[in-house]
Amino acid sequence: MTEFLEQCRAAIGAAHVLTDAADMAAHLTDWRRRFTGQAQAVLKPGTPEETAALVRLCNRFRVPLVPQGGNTGLVLGSVPDRSGAAVVVSTTRLNRIRAIDTVNNTMTVEAGCVLQTIQNAAAEAGRLFPLSLAAEGSCTIGGNLSTNAGGTGVLRYGNTRELCLGLEVVTAQGQVWSGLRGLRKDNTGYDLRDLFIGAEGTLGGVTAAVLRLFPLPKAQLTALGAMKTPDDALTLLSIAQARCGAALTGFELMSDFCLQLVGKHFPQLRLPFPEASPQYVLLELSDSESEEHANLMLESVITEALEQGVIHDAAVASSIAQSKGLWSLREHISLAQATEGKNIKHDISVPISRIGDFIRVTDGLLQQQFPGCRMVTFGHLGDGNLHYNVSPPEHQSDEAFIADQAAINQVVHDSVHRFGGSISAEHGLGTLKRDEIRQYKSDVELSLMKTIKQALDPLGLMNPGKVL
Amino acid sequence: MTEFLEQCRAAIGAAHVLTDAADMAAHLTDWRRRFTGQAQAVLKPGTPEETAALVRLCNRFRVPLVPQGGNTGLVLGSVPDRSGAAVVVSTTRLNRIRAIDTVNNTMTVEAGCVLQTIQNAAAEAGRLFPLSLAAEGSCTIGGNLSTNAGGTGVLRYGNTRELCLGLEVVTAQGQVWSGLRGLRKDNTGYDLRDLFIGAEGTLGGVTAAVLRLFPLPKAQLTALGAMKTPDDALTLLSIAQARCGAALTGFELMSDFCLQLVGKHFPQLRLPFPEASPQYVLLELSDSESEEHANLMLESVITEALEQGVIHDAAVASSIAQSKGLWSLREHISLAQATEGKNIKHDISVPISRIGDFIRVTDGLLQQQFPGCRMVTFGHLGDGNLHYNVSPPEHQSDEAFIADQAAINQVVHDSVHRFGGSISAEHGLGTLKRDEIRQYKSDVELSLMKTIKQALDPLGLMNPGKVL
User: Fold this and answer.
1) What per-residue confidence (pLDDT) applies to B59?
2) Residue B218, Cβ neighbours under 10 Å: how many?
3) Does the model's pTM come out above 0.95?
4) Confidence band for A26, pLDDT divided at 50, 70 and 90
5) 3-state secondary structure B225-263
6) Of A188, A422, A468, the CB nearest to B423
7) pLDDT of residue B268
8) Contact B245 A243 (CB under 8 A)
9) Does A243 contact B289 at a Cβ distance shorter than 8 Å?
10) What is the mean pLDDT of the segment spanning A24-35?
11) CA B25, B31, B36: angle at the middle one, nearest 5?
12) I need a surface site. Which of A111, A337, A344, B331 has the fewest CB within 10 A?
């Protein structure tokens, strides 16, 4: 036991300093099991002050530290490197809901609270916390904030950034910045909150936040529309936005191939149409009034879309079970493609108006260079965010296909860049996209980012090797 | 003509380098005519590149520069000090609307575009740009962004920060950072956009932005409710939010004394009630469906509020003229209090749930120390933002009253601080609140702000003396 670890034990209690390999294992491997790092220890502070004390020790002993929430990230942002020099600082024990204020519509939570716990606490108080994503049963709000997580509610409610009014952060020097303000308006200086949000723990560590709550909708309705092209889906989006305004809370595109994969691997999940179409959109309306009213709105959208020839078929869920059934189709795409075999994922966004052209052009480029590759294209069309994933041609081995990964990424991300898009719409950079992003950001922007990193974390101890 | 100014002429053309006192006058005095500074020159670049060239010259010759939009700010943030050392860099000529994309719902505008011009261009394209505030005919979007302006649409659409997807900024070193992305989701590094937004030109100068547009509502309805207390107004807010969700786009509190002043100085504006009440709320609904539907929603809110005894009277505007009439009452409060004489203004916010207590406690403290002072309390209750203004007792001279200004500010702002609020909700710090804010921010926060300023503007040339 080194002096550093002795002092950590003194600061937070020996029981919360894990050095045993078995105890540390879950903290050292990433969610998709693609990388395993090493660490001196996993530290589990119980309060912001204990967290700050650990950061001060890291400063004194020059130990790099990796903040970690639920460790569900997809870009290797929350695991240490293989040097074994770092410690993981896990927020597991920072898991109190500190306050709920239903008049101010805010909830104050600690970083280690699991997203689903927060959703449930809000619902029990008669409010909605709208952040929702696949990992919600395991991910923590600290991680959601540090990666500015997206998910399925962004169209109406924004990214995690837009759901946060205030933060408590332990700085790289081990001081607690208490910015837990529950205010909608505050123009008294630089926006430190948004600087720490999305910084992936490289500028400081989030320990608590004030989150925004919303009224619970009275009714939620789901429908599935069938159409020919992504451009038709965009026209449907315009119709739905004009007719429903903020009541439109979900708008997910799924290509036919996505649902073929779902049908193949989950035959119990069935499309509500007799024949296949090239594209589908899952719409969700959330109504503050009544189910009847939601139904009327949805019917009016579908009627106009059918009349204009934008869609050629539609199914409206008439029960919560049917609604869940439609969402299941969407939610099983990732599982179905994993069951099918290897695939190369891209979490990209482009301006919504350019989505049709982007898909057409990029599909063409990929077919030229990798003939027969199969596109698993789906995602949050209403946000311009696609999971633009590539599966191997039918008879190619996974190994041969994965050997082309870098070349495929290059084709896709170069195209995204030409369309004015982002190569990481909702997952962050971590270590996975850290090198790649340098091709797409200007020197001015990279230099501004480095200047900020250097200023706030001059010793470079905060989650080193991530983002920059 | 100094060598510096010669070079400025060479960079942007002699016609755009103003040194004549008469030409410069409008740029040196603030909107409320409380302060007149001095400058070497007023510079009017025509492009971002010209702006950058000027900033590089300022670097070379160590000349401080004051970015200026419509110069309508209320905290002395856009005028130079009296030393005469600085130049004003006016965005007047950066006034192109570069693009409108109705499918992506974005508009790309230069910093010098007047807010009203942007609102009109959006409306002509069948879209809404929802930022709206008193100075909209003169203020520019660059100023709105640099101060993160609020206004009457924040409840539904957020502050200027939430209305911006991308920025173009000239850095303190005179480089152009082009971050004009029109993306709803982009998690590729630090949030530079939000760092420059609200920084009041002290970290760099905004030259262009990508703004979010929204569908035009089909109908807007306004109503006025009469109630006893601010707490009743909060209950009405909860009822309206539960019933109307995002359709509730305005919620403005006005005390009886505010409307007495309006009635006294603008007798043509009349309250639609036979008898006065202690408090009033102006509600606005924006409906994506129809006027009929908006009417039904509004009626349901008012019926519930009357049944619960939350309000005792209500008037619903049945025409656009009547709606304008109700908004006129709200909009004439500032003019009426100015006509009445001097008053001491506070642009404050507290958590919405604490507004009732804040008003009660702070009114009491002021009456104790300044007996007879009259409260002109109104504002954006739905955002927790009050214009909590103090008028002198009836027979006190303006001079005697203004002598107490610092003491009155101290009482109000100390109380705001105890209630977890902000002493500048929507106007910024400028030079006016720069010293005062140091009492209310922690050393950690002030130190983080200074670190960022020092890192991005090491020569301290960007709008010196403002914010920090």
Assistant:
1) 98
2) 16
3) yes
4) very high
5) EEECCHHHHHHHHHHHHHHHHHHEEEEEEEEHHHHHHHH
6) A188
7) 93
8) no
9) yes
10) 95
11) 45
12) B331
Suggest the residue from B185, B346, B450 to mutate for an interface test with chain A (most A CBs closer than 10 A).
B185
Cβ atoms B89, B205 nearer than 8 A: yes
User: What residue in A sits closest to B103 (Cα-Cα)?
Assistant: A353
Residue of B nearest to A199 (CA): B190
Identify each DSSP E strand in A62-216 by its residue range. 65-68, 87-90, 97-101, 106-110, 127-128, 164-171, 176-179, 204-212, 214-215
A216: distance to nearest CA of chain B, Å? 8
The 10 Å Cβ neighbour count of residue B2 is 12
Q: Using one digit for the tens of pLDDT, what is the confidence trace for A74-130?
A: 999 999 999 999 999 999 999 999 999 999 999 999 999 999 999 999 999 999 999
- Which pairing describes strands B87-90 and B41-43: parallel, antiparallel, or unpaired? parallel
Give the pLDDT confidence of B414-460 residue by residue, as tens digits. 999 999 999 999 999 999 999 999 999 999 999 999 999 999 999 99
Q: Average of pLDDT values for A417-436?
A: 97
Least CB-CB distance to A154: which of B106, B185, B215? B185
Between chain A and chain B, how many beta carbons pairs sit less than 8 Å apart? 275
Interface test with B, best of A180, A188, A436 (most B CBs within 10 A): A188
Distance CA A34, CA B238 (A): 48
Structure tokens belonging to residue A31: 């969610």
CA distance A1 to B357: 54
Is B449 close to A190, i.e. CB distance below 8 A? yes
Q: Which residues of A touch B297 (CB under 8 A)?
A: 289
Give the position of tokens 């990732």: A334
For CA atoms B443, B446, B449, B451, give the dihedral sign.
negative
Residue A23 distance to chain B (closest CA, Å): 32
Radius of gyration over alpha carbons of chain B, in Å? 23
